[in-house]
Amino acid sequence: MERKVFQLGDVVQMKKNHPCGSNEMEIIRMGMDIRIKCVGCQHSVLIPRAKFEKNMKKVLRSKEAGEEANDK
């Protein structure tokens, strides 16, 4: 199974919804643990990288793609 590719600033979709109802999270810190911030209510959570990779479905908006759009 290939590793999921994500980077700082990406907005990702998680398998389970946050209690506020949103399942979109923005990656705001990366390392052994990853801090994600709920797009809906701005609550942030620090979780281990292994648990994050297991619970992440896909990258919805990449920060890199947004920068390329701004350059044009």
UniProtKB/TrEMBL annotation:
<dbReference type="Pfam" id="PF06107">
    <property type="entry name" value="DUF951"/>
</dbReference>
<dbReference type="InterPro" id="IPR009296">
    <property type="entry name" value="DUF951"/>
</dbReference>
<protein>
    <submittedName>
        <fullName>DUF951 family protein</fullName>
    </submittedName>
</protein>
